[in-house]
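Comment thread on ticket #2218

A.B. wrote:
> Attaching the input chain for the structure job we discussed in standup.
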Amino acid sequence: MLTRRDTMAMGLGVAAVAMVPGAAIASAVDDAIAAFTGGASVTDGGVTIDAPEIAENGNTVPIAVDAPGATEILLLAAGNPTPGVAKFGFGEGAASSRAATRIRLGGTQDVVAIAKMADGSYARGAVEVKVTIGGCGG
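C.D. wrote:
> Ran it. Output below, let me know if you need it in another format.
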C-alpha cells in the first residue's frame, strides 16, 4: 500500500534526480572557464556573439564570435552534455579576432564565449539561442 507520504518522498526524489544533470552541466561550464582562465576574473562585455535568436534545427546553428584584441576565444554551449565547442587562437598577424562556425545545440540554451585579451585579461559574452528541434538527441 502506497501512502501519501511515500508518494511525496518519491516525487521529491525524482525532482532531485532530474536537477542533477543541469547542475553537472553548469559545473562543467564553470570548470571549463576556470581551466581556460586559470581562475582569473572575467569581465562582462568586449565579446560579441552573432547567433540566430531562434534556430529551427539544433543540428547546425551558425555562430560568429568577435573580440577585438583577443589572442584566444573559448566557445561553450552551456546546455549541451559536453559544453566545450571550440577554441580559436589568433596570432600577431591576424587581421581580426573573429571566428565563425556552425555548432550543434541540444535545446534552448546560452552560448558563451570567453576571450583572452592581449593584455592578459579575460572578457565574456553570452547569448541565448532558442532551439525548436534539438540537435543532441533532443
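A.B. wrote:
> Thanks. Noting for the ticket: The first helix runs from residue 4 to 37.
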